[in-house]
Design a protein that fits this description.
47 residues; two-stranded antiparallel ribbon; alpha+beta
Length: 47
């Protein structure tokens, strides 16, 4: 899949058929990996 090759932060996902009554089969999807890097001195409230 071209999208996956050009965006290494994306991951393969799956919406199971059981998630919605209208689905009769699983639906392939994309997910996004998100990372947050902060200074160790930043308060928990800010993070």
């Amino acid at each position: 899949m071209i999208v996956m090759q050009n965006n290494p932060g994306y991951i393969y996902g799956n919406i199971p058929a059981s998630a919605y009554k209208s689905l009769d089969k699983d639906v392939p999807s994309l997910g996004i990996v998100t990372s947050m890097i902060v200074n160790k001195d930043l308060s928990d409230e800010m993070v």
